[in-house]
Input
Amino acid sequence: MQWQWENATAGAIAGFTTVAALHPLDVVRTRFQVNDGRLTRFPLYTNTANALYTIARTEGLRGLYSGFFPAVLGSSLSWGLYFFFYSRAKHRYQKDTGEQLGPGLHLASAAEAGTLVCLFTNPVWLVKTRLQLQVPGSAAHQPYSGFFDASRTIFRDEGWRALYKGLGPGLLLVSHGAIQFTAYEEARKFVIKSRNKQCNDGNIHGDEVLTSADYVAMGAFSKIFAALSTYPYQVIRARVQQRPNSEGVPKYRDSYHALTETLRFEGIRGLYKGIVPNLLRNVPASSITFLVYENVLKFFK
Output
């Protein structure tokens, strides 16, 4: 059990570091995702740089870091739980088979961990999305003053089920983590195998041959592969999680409605809105996450 808690602690530290470094790009990505061209309450940004500049000019640093607390909480909690559940699942499968895990069992371990994390953290991500979409003077609602006020208001006005809006696409996004971790593990095995063949020092073995540059490269590779495969789920989830209008009517009834309306008015391109700031944020974020995680884990070991 101690081993899994070390994984959880390393994952939580990695999640916090990632959000602290790259949160403004997450704000931009979320606003691009929900802007379907038919809404008037969001500014029309021409590109990522223009969005960052416009938000900084009109809303200041507060705007660029809107939703920061739930993002930090959600990321630290998610990565901590994810690595905890993932390491436990891998350990269990390895104990059952007695062999090194292949892609199938890595995929199963990651899917199991992702499902559990999604069920635990969906309310946090919903609040984060709502806070990031607050634009000064753009809505008839009284703005949320922070994480706890938003949580309380959503629960009071919309009921506890509202905190689980977007759970469907969130569960589909489990495939994102499963694909990413499988790609990372397979890349990891490949690099270790290649390095061990080249290494003549008998005292160096296993993951000791990996460097920080390897963790950065493998984290980036795995994220790009997973992001391109599953990004539309993120767009649908963000759109479903928007705050209802002043009459309490949601923009989209459910995930299916969001999908059909997006395809109807925007086509396939609508499902990839915000992909550029998403990659600009999440590729280095993935590199940072795995770099910090692996090095913290080495420190514990």
Q: What stands out?
A: The mean pLDDT is 85. The first helix runs from residue 2 to 34. Residues 252 and 258 are 5 Å apart (CA to CA).
